[in-house]
Design the sequence.
């Protein structure tokens, strides 16, 4: 896939001045809407876990993440506003995607997650996937404000991912291997589906327009190899998944 636009090629004022193809703006809007929505669900999920977690250090972690995600959501909606897109209009672009498997993990976190092990799983599912998307796709976006936002969030995101990674490595002692293993079976297919189908038309357009850099399949495989390493460190069995989206237990 040849990209037609280099990283950080487009600024907001160029869109405002009508210098950019409306099709580019349309695809960009959907990318930003999905980015905002995922973080909104993450914020809701972290808030939700606070009601079901007693451990003070884990509560502090959930609170920190809740506050951070809320800031991120606002930053992305501000970016959309610059393009003349309201939060509501942005959400409307996701109507059909919303029930798809790629939002399953975020939806589950926001609507059903309970307790400490689910917080740990949300870390592995939302933070690690988020880190990959931010660090690989968005940081080199052709839309300069999105690339700058990703760059500014990246260090913090990586540190946060490390916190969850350390927590997982300690899972046997803190939560018990069986409890974590059972939850991993529930969460892992949803987390892997976050990246969406291989070679989707929308993603191909994102690649062509420089709004993403890697295909969904490649990111999903990278993600699963990271999780496999972390599971091995923690003494957890990595659940076997089917190879194609939507991934399920094999
Ligand atoms: Fe975020």
Sequence:
């Amino acid at each position: 896939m040849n990209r037609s636009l280099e990283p950080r090629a487009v600024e907001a004022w160029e869109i405002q001045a009508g210098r950019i193809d409306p099709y580019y703006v349309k695809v960009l809007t959907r990318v930003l809407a999905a980015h905002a929505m995922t973080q909104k669900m993450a914020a809701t999920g972290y808030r939700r876990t606070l009601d079901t977690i007693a451990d003070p250090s884990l509560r502090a972690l959930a609170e920190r993440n809740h506050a951070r995600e809320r800031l991120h959501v606002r930053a992305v909606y501000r970016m959309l506003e610059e393009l003349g897109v309201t939060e509501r209009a942005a959400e409307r672009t996701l109507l059909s995607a919303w029930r798809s498997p790629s939002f399953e993990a975020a939806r589950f976190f926001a609507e059903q997650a309970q307790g400490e092990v689910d917080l740990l799983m949300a870390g592995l599912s939302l933070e690690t996937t988020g880190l990959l998307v931010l660090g690989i796709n968005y940081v080199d976006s052709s839309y300069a404000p999105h690339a700058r936002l990703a760059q500014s969030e990246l260090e913090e995101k990586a540190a946060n991912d490390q916190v969850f990674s350390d927590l997982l490595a300690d899972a046997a002692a803190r939560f018990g291997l069986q409890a974590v293993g059972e939850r991993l079976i529930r969460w892992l297919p949803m987390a892997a589906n976050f990246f969406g189908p291989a070679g989707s038309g929308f993603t191909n357009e994102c690649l062509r327009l420089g709004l993403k850099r890697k295909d969904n399949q490649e990111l999903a495989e990278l993600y699963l190899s990271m999780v496999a390493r972390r599971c091995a460190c923690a003494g957890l069995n990595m659940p076997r998944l089917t190879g194609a989206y939507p991934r399920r237990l094999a």
